[in-house]
Amino acid sequence: MIRVVLPFHLCNLAQVAGEVTLDVPEPVTLRAALDSLEERYPVLRGTIRDHGTLRRRPFLRFFACERDLTHDSPDEPLPPEVVAGAEPLLVVGAIAGG
């Protein structure tokens, strides 16, 4: 089981509190985690990744264990602390403006 923390607007959309737990098949990668998240909460499909390309939506970033995973390969294994459930995978809404 891994823990995923979602930004406020996605929590409201999925009707969940800030953190969800997911069963993710091995190998536990960002792609596998997002696939599991979208399978469990179909309303989130297309909000984190584009429907067709599965590329990350602008203004969303991924963090775990104080590392920015946003530009890592989605097929790279997540940190062992995330896989063990000790640390969450964070989906963070970026802020822009001037």
- In angstroms, what separates the terminal alpha carbons? 39 Å
Strand count? 5
| Largest beta sheet: strand ordering | 2-1-5-3-4
Question: What proportion of the residues is helical, as a percent range?
Answer: 10-25%
Work out the radius of gyration. Answer: 13 Å
Largest beta-sheet details: 5 strands, mixed
CATH superfamily: Beta-grasp domain
Task: List the total number of helices.
Answer: 3
Given the helix and strand composition, which structural class is it?
Answer: alpha+beta
Q: Could you list the spans in which at least 5 consecutive residues all have pLDDT below 50?
A: none
Query: Per the principal axes of the C-alpha atoms, what is the gross shape?
Result: globular
State the name of the first-level CATH class. Answer: Alpha Beta
The H/E string reads EHEHEEHE
Mean pLDDT level: 94
**CATH third-level topology:** Ubiquitin-like (UB roll)
Report the CATH architecture.
Answer: Roll
Strand content: 15-25%
Domain count: the total is: 1
How would you portray this structure in words?
There is one protein chain. The protein has a 5-stranded mixed β-sheet, with helices on one face. The chain has one domain (2-93): Ubiquitin-like (UB roll), CATH 3.10.20. 22% of the residues lie in helices and 20% in strands. By secondary structure, it is of the alpha+beta class. The relative contact order is 0.25. The mean pLDDT is 94. The protein is globular. The longest helix has 11 residues, at 30-40.
